[in-house]
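REVIEWER CHECKLIST
Item 1: Sequence provided? yes
Item 2: Single chain? yes
Item 3: Sequence as submitted:
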Amino acid sequence: MKNKIFCLVGSLFLICGCSSYKKVLSPITAYLLTKTNKNDTIMVIEEMINNNFTIDFLQAQSKIRVDKNTIEDSTPHEGIYSEKDWLIMQKKYQNKTKTANWLNSDLWHQKDFNKLNIRLIKEDLFPKPWVFNEYLKEENKEIKVFAFSKPIFYKNNRFMLFAKSETTTKKQIITPDSIVIMQKKNGVWIIIQELISNIYY
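Item 4: Structure as written out by the authors:
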């Protein structure tokens, strides 16, 4: 009898855990569905981007002085950044053991993108533009490529943030360079802002 109870409790815990995990991931699926057609093949870097990038990038972009030369969307929209809320987020989500942008032990899986046609690829195996590779051949179709951090809550769960990099199999530069700020309205995740770098490339 005790074994049955333990199994039931364990099963409920697993179900709740999976449900919670998918709830956290759903903003990325919603984001990708605005950027691609559902039947398109897209590539995603298997390693997650470190949450430290998301946290540090939001604060850094909030300190940029706004003038006529400021790049659009390189600073947070009004009402998004708050030092108090940022410190709460930093304390909760900062990765104190890993500082690199790419987390080799935290990986995306096909099941995380069950509504999309995803091909996963390791960051170190993704081609670099300074070395000729098969993706650069004219006859090969250009495919969109993304990299993401795990989404994190911000401002009492009002917003969901995650780091992002976007390129193609022809351009091949996949360095993290932006964060996506989303909010759930009427049960649907919508993009509030894509906060980008203030550096011209």
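Item 5: Key structural point noted by reviewer: Residues 4-21 have pLDDT under 50 and may be disordered.
Item 6: Recommendation: ____
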